[in-house]
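Troubleshooting entry. Yesterday's outputs looked truncated, so today I'm pasting the complete records for two proteins to confirm everything comes through intact. If either block looks cut off, that's the bug. Protein one:
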Amino acid sequence: MTDETDAPPSSPASPNRRARQCNADYRWTLPKVKAFLLALEQCGRVAEAAKAVGMSRQSAYALRARLDGPKFREAFEGARRMGLRARAAASRQRLHAARSRWEGPGLAALDYLRAAPSQADISGAYADMLAAQADMRAEQADMIMHEADAADP
């Protein structure tokens, strides 16, 4: 006859307890560092790249401080610079696409206004406005590129 108190405890794991995490889940591993550098190369933002690999921005900067060798610092900054350049290029493409969309209908309207001789002053003002907007957009693209180049040490 066995006593119930002698039986081994067979209680299932408490549903309130979290499963124990593997070290690779919350620590920097070599595959995570490589994925982080690739993500940083694509987006140019440390926070975005760190989030993509399941880490925080603070831990990414702590990793850079901990691995303060010339090779890692060069890889980190090089990837960040490439990402900033990629962001600036994408911004220029969006700007060019927006300019193309604007100029298409705008030029048709300008042709219409030029056809009406009584509207000559209005069409000149419209053409000046289009030129000023195009110059402003070009200056914005140049400023973005200048900021990306200025970020390069």
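Protein two, checking that the full record survives here as well:
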Amino acid sequence: MVTKSRVRRTRERYNKREAVAGYLFILPWIAGFLIFTAGAMIYSLRSRQDSPACGSLGWAGS
């Protein structure tokens, strides 16, 4: 005879396994986003801080 607590533990274990599988499935997308999108945005903002803000701009045409 299967008790309710045993069924509940089995269901909780299954739900936890499903959650871990979901996180592992989406992990490559999150890593790619952080490296290629957010990382590039942060790098570009940081490199902007090193340059003077429009102080040395001049006419480049003829």
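Both blocks look complete. Sanity check on protein two: The radius of gyration is 26 Å.
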